Structure formats: C-alpha cells, structure tokens
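ping. complex inputs:
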Amino acid sequence: AAPGAMAAFLTHQQKVLRLYKKSLRHLESWCIHRDKYRYFACLLRDRFDKNKDVKDMVKATELLKAGEEEFWASQHPQPYVFPDSPGGTSYERYEMYKLPEWCLDFWHPSEKAMYPDYFAKREQWKKLQRESWEREIKQLQEETPAGGPRTEALPPARKEGHLPPMWWHHVTRPREQPM
Amino acid sequence: MDLLLTLNTLMLLTLATLLTPIIFPMLSDNLKNTPTTITNTVKTAFLISLLPMTIFIYSGSESLISLWEWKYIMNFKIPISLKMDFYSLTFFPIALFVSWSILQFATWYMASDPHITKFFTYLLLFLIAMLILIAANNLFILFIGWEGVGIMSFLLISWWHGRAEANTAALQAVLYNRVGDVGLILCMAWLASSMNTWEIQQLTSPHQTPTLPLLGLILAATGKSAQFGLHPWLPAAMEGPTPVSALLHSSTMVVAGIFLLIRTHPLLSTNQTALTLCLCLGALSTLFAATCALTQNDIKKIIAFSTSSQLGLMMVTIGLNLPQLAFLHISTHAFFKAMLFLCSGSIIHSLNGEQDIRKMGGLQKMLPTTTSCLTIGNLALMGTPFLAGFYSKDQIIESLSTSYLNTWALVLTLLATSFTAVYTIRMTVLVQAGFVRIPPLTPMNENNPAVTSPITRLALGSITAGFFITSYILPTKTPPMTMPMPIKLTALIVTILGIAIALELSKLTQTLILTKQTHFSNFSASLGYFNPLTHRLTSTSLLAGGQNIASHLIDLSWYKLIGPEGLASSQQTASKLATTLHSGSIKAYLSSFALSILIILTSTY
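pong. complex structure:
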C-alpha cells in the first residue's frame, strides 16, 4: 500500500484517539449542562494524559482494553447524534445524493427536452473534463508530498488556463437539500 | 325554522367543502390546488361546522342521516348512515379547528419541500377519513374511515421515504394497526351473525353481551390507540414530519380506538369483565408510557409518550363506564397536544433540525411566543386547575378515587399522573430555562404569522375549551359530588409532588456528580425492553414454527415416513428377520414345512 494510505489495521494512536473522542461524546450525553461537562471532560483528559508516555506496548494495550471495557459499561443508552449524521433524525431525508451524475446520460430524449439549456452545454463540459483530467492528475502527483497528502484540501490550479484538480467531482457533487 | 334540516344540511355541507380540493382538480386543469387553498378550505369547513354545534347546544336536537342502502343480501342491509349526535357534532369543529391551525403551520414548516401540495392533499384525505369515522352510524362506514386513517398514517409517516427508519416506522404502524383490525372484524362478524345489524342504535341487548366480541373491540382499540402490548408504533411514528405528528398521532387518529369504544359503549356497559380489562389495560398503558417518557431526550418522543399515556387514561375512563368523560378528555387533549407538537416543530425548525433537548436551552428569550405557549400546553397537560386539561383529567381521577374498583389501577394512574408532571417539568427546564446549549449563529425569529397565529389560537383553545365544553354540555351520568377533601385534592397533590421531584432532580443534574445507571433508568431508557423482545421473539417463533412445519412435518413425515421410506424400512426389517431363517441346511427347511402343515391343519379345525 502507498505510504499514508489507510491500512487494514488501526494503529495504537488511532485506537486511543477514537476511544477518547467517543467517551467525550458519551460524557456529553450524560452531562447535559456545559459547565458540568467541561469539568468531567477535563478529568477524563487528565486520566488519558497520565498514561500518555507509556512506552511498553503490552502495558499500553492492556490500558486501552481496560478503557474500552469501562466505556462499554458506562455508555449512554441514547447517545447524542447530530441530526445530519448517520443515525440522526435528519439523515438521508432527501434522496439527493443517491444518484451519480452519469445517470443523466441515460435520460430519455423527452426528459432531456425538459432542460434544453443544460443538455445543450453538457457535451462541451464533458469534453472539457476529459481533456483536463490528465493535467489535474499530473499536478496532484507533483504536489503531493512523499509520505502521502497531509490534508484533504485540494490545491488550486497553478498554471494559466489549467483547471483546479478534481473540479468536476466538486461541481457535480449532489445537493444536501432539495431546491 | 326547521332546525333538523339545517343541521343535516350544514353537516353535509362541511363534508362537501372538504371534498372540493379533491374533486375540482380532476374536473379542470385550471383548478390546481395550493397549500393556501387547502388551508382556506379547512378553515371554511370549520366555520360551517360551528353552526350545527350551536344548533345542538341550544336545542339538543340530534339526527341521523341515511343516504343509500347497499342491499347486499335480502335480510342484511348496510345503509350509508351518518349520526349527528353530541359526539360527532362536537368533535367536528374541534378536529377542523385543530387541522386548520396545523395546516397553516405546515405552510411554513414544509415550505422547502418539493412536493408540498401532495403533502397537504394527504393531510386532507386523512381528515376526510377521520370525519367519516366520527360521523359513522354503523360499523361498516366506521371501518371505511378506520382503514382510511390507517393508510394515510402509513403514507404520511413515510413522507421522507429516503430514510430507512421512516419506512420501518410506517410498516410498524400499519402492522400493529392490522393486528387491531382483526379484533374489529371479529366483533363485526359476531354482530352480523347474532344481531343482524351493524348500526350503533341497535347495539343494546337486555342481558350481558358475551365477552368475545368485546375482546375484539378492545383489541381494535389497543391497536389503534397504542395501548400497552400494541404500543411501539406510536413513538416510532415520530419519524414523520411534525405536522403529521401533530394531526395524526396526537389529536385525531390515535383517539379513533377510544372513539370506537365510546360508540359501542352500550355493549360494553353490561359486561363487567370487559370493563375491568379496559381499566387495567388503560392503567398499565398510562404508567408504562409515562415511565418511558422520563428518560427520553428527543422532544418529539417525549410528547409521543405523553400522548400514549393520556390515551391510557382515556381507556381507564372507558373502564369506569364513563364514555362522555372520555370524550371530554379527547376534546381537551386535542387542543393542548396539537399545540405542544406545533411548538416543538417551531423550535426544531428554528434550530435547523435539532430535536434533542440536550442541545436546547434558554429559548425563552429567543422564541417567546412559542415557549410561552409550550408552558401553557404543559400546564394544561399536567391538569393545572381551570385550564383545559383540568376539567377532564381531574374529573377522571375523582371518579377513579371514589368508585369501588381496583386499587391497583388507581395507584398506577396516580403514579402516572405524577410522572406526567415530572417529564413535563424536565422538558420545560431543559428546553426553555437555563443556559443556552444550541449551536451558535442560528438566526431564529418568530416573525412569520404562519407560525405564531396557529400556536396562539390553539393556546386560547387550551385555556378555554374545557370551560366552554363543560358549561354548555350536561353530563349524562351524575359525577361524584361529595368526597373527603384529601380525595378531592389527590390529583393536585400528586402533580405538585411530581413537580417538586422534577425540580429537585433538575438541580441534581447541575451539581458535579456523575449520574449512575440504575436498573430503573435503564428500563425506562430502553422503553421497557419491549421492542427487541417482541419484535424478535414473535418473528423467530413464527418463522421457526413455519420452518418446522414445512420441513419436519410435511417433508419428513408426510412425504417420507408415511410414504416410500416408511414402507421401505418396514420391508427392510421384515426381510432382515427372514434372512436369519435362510440358513442353507435341509433340516431347517424340512422343519419349516412341517411347522406350516401343522399350523394349516390346526387352523382348519
């Protein structure tokens, strides 16, 4: 696998951080008022920080396992889920993003006639996408550091007349809410 | 002036007004519906329906309309008859008033929805089915309305059908209602065979009604009105948009089961077993729902469990043989419950879809009208003296305390009343009071009259409805007039106790102690473990039983053991027995000849 890509197994650091975040979220579900939450969140952070410099991996894994068990025993039965997150009340309410943009190519001509302006220009946009794809990929390959990309943000276009990388995927991204 | 003719004409005019947005678009392409036209249609129908109610109040005239008769077989005719008695004449304006307010609210709430006209048409179809159910004079027309509201409930709960949970919830609603429908059909079959009629007037019998059809009716009410045992669909139905929850699952559809029991009350009143079953079932439902509401964090679920609890209370009233009081509670409950849902919808929409009360707080200053009306609704729900809920709820608890009935039902109902106060105060404190916990930068305002006028109108109804209905309508049974002072104040004391406990618990949550999980809090938070137990046990047992029947009974036994394999194995045992005798020695064969000749000779004698 390329360096920096997601591997099949989580590292110890990733596991500890995931435990910390989910225990903070469940603590937030238990402690409704913010001052109380902040107090207990600081205590929890201190508990994690006390064992931060353990170099023995066996001991560190045992601590992690004990932490996971403590989390399981004291989790909240109805944890707070953000409305647009999976499991939330507004998740997947509108079926906007279930269809990719190439489905438009399969529309019947009578349906395409309902949006003549868009479909008149669509072929040109597709041609532009095909032509600029090689240049976008070349730019990304040159600009990515050796250990993999540090962040998910895409770089802008560097040369005159070039388009920013992955612009087609951004422009044809699905809507969140209907119009 | 012929009052009865006016009464009949105006009621039919109300129904016809509601049908116009359905029929007119079919007649011409220019007459398209919009949300505003549908809202105005319901408003007009409400204003028209006020007149028959006034006629009834001032002259006491009831009537019965028979429109057409379906001569199915010669000795069993099914007329399309509508009954304009106290129940239908009073519930029509109430249902139409509440629906008008909800539709006006929905013009703001669903404004960003691409199919808003279809939504309003669905709500209108639901309303028509509900009014058919209310006005029905025989069980056949009632069944038409019953199924109609069930179907519209399914379509409206799964309005956002992109969500898997919404589709599951709609299926749950339909299946649980279907289980209840079996009971209703059982009762209709018994009535058709023994009394040869489905009319409500002909339901009285001099001696005690057998318990089986009444069990069917109670099953129907359990399914439709979410009593304990068939209740999980009501909290799940909160997946639908808030106007749907306000109209269907608080004021109108869920009271259809109780309304059926009110209509068929003459049958129930003779059978004490059925009445006791209603009483105990209602008491259990009200306590169970109130227990589940204590630890809910979704504002719509709290109000849903509150509805379930009040429906249990209505069932308790039916069990006390007081159908008119149950109807009074239905009417007052419609006002404040619809208002609670509309207030919660206003809060949810202002917070951009946030439904969890852990992320609300301090909204009293930001949404003053909404939160004030929320407070009024909560006070009415708790039975605050002289608001709408007081007139019905207090009378129910007084009648319960002074009658010679089940102490267990009384204790459960009182406990549920105090739990009502507890979860109501918890909701109020977490939503309106205290510091703000909402995500910042939400530009919320109440400047839209489509939000404030329905809510204030329903608030006015919540305050005055109980007073007006009780002052104009005389009760048919004498309420208990004298009782000791502690008994009279029971409901009030229990509610005040609940409020005090809730305020103490709220103060406790603000101290720096982590709440421990107790068995009671886990029971309440997992909704009594009912859903996973029943949903998995019933389906696994039915499917495993079916698998056993198909594979073991039919395949293995009937097709194999009785048929070829059994025959083959019996042949095999016989031939195995016989081969031991084929030893090859002549002595054995000669002895077998001799034996058989001996047997033949001895048997012929």
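Chain A touches chain B through 28 residues (CB under 8 Å).
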